[in-house]
Design brief:
Blueprint: H1 5-20, H2 26-33, E1 42-46, H3 52-56, E2 61-66, H4 69-77, E3 81-84, E4 97-103, H5 112-122, E5 123-134, H6 139-151, H7 160-169, E6 173-178, E7 182-188
Parallel strand pairs: 1-2, 1-4, 2-3, 4-5
Antiparallel strand pairs: 5-7, 6-7
Helix pairs in contact: 1-4
Bound molecules: S-adenosylmethionine.
């Protein structure tokens, strides 16, 4: 698989990432998933890396999708089901999952529109997208943008409003349940 900039960096530092990163904050994820208008049984953790978000989610089926083999090794070691794929080309049938979570990953994805379109395609009606991101307009957000570019990432960040508009354009009903340096945008499939 072709691994452009950010993915190659994650492959290189996957072990360090797995060792250093704390557990994902489960509260905003659970609050976002609670907005689904159907039971949440099948969850995709896209850009899921070592599976931090999947581990924080309570659902019978959790699948981590990521193009980085190094990051997925950490998720596999934790016993999670994994699919190695670009989030903008999900090898997942249409209308087959109840929720998609994307945590600290959308800003690394080269084709963000493609990923949001794919999310709408795979969600069942009433299913929910939960995205956790960092607000580029806050002071720590500006520092993060600078730091990630310094390290060599091609990261493209949003404000909550910008991301909600992108989610709407993908055909989901968007809302912003929490704001701050870290914020959440949800999108409900109709
Ligand atoms: C900062 S890590 C976050 C991983 C995990 N979601 C977490 O919260 O720990 C960003 C992840 O995005 C993944 N990524 C980069 N480009 C991607 C793409 N096109 N499709 C899906 N995932 C991608 C990287 O491989 C990496 O695992």
């Amino acid at each position: 698989m072709h691994t452009p900039g950010d993915i190659a960096l994650f492959d290189r530092f996957a072990r360090l990432y797995g060792a250093l990163m704390p557990a994902a904050n489960d509260r905003p994820l659970r609050a976002g998933l609670a907005l689904a208008e159907r039971d949440v049984e099948r969850v995709l953790d896209v850009g899921g890396g070592t599976g931090r978000a999947a581990r924080a989610v309570d659902a019978p089926v959790r699948v981590v999708v990521d193009p980085s083999a190094g990051m997925l090794a950490g998720a596999r070691a934790a016993g999670l089901d994994c699919v190695r794929a670009d989030g903008a080309a999900l090898p997942i049938p249409a209308a087959s999952v109840d929720a998609v979570v994307i945590v600290d990953a959308l800003h690394h994805v080269a084709d963000q529109t493609g990923l949001l379109d794919e999310t709408r395609r795979v969600l069942r009606p009433g299913g929910v997208l939960v995205v956790r991101e960092f607000d580029r307009a806050t002071l720590p957000g500006r520092a993060l943008v600078a730091a990630e570019h310094l390290v060599g990432f091609d990261s493209q960040f949003f404000t909550p409003e910008e991301l909600a508009a992108r989610v709407e354009r993908a055909g989901l009903d968007a809302a912003v349940p929490d704001r701050g340096f870290g914020f959440t945008v949800v999108g409900i499939a109709r």
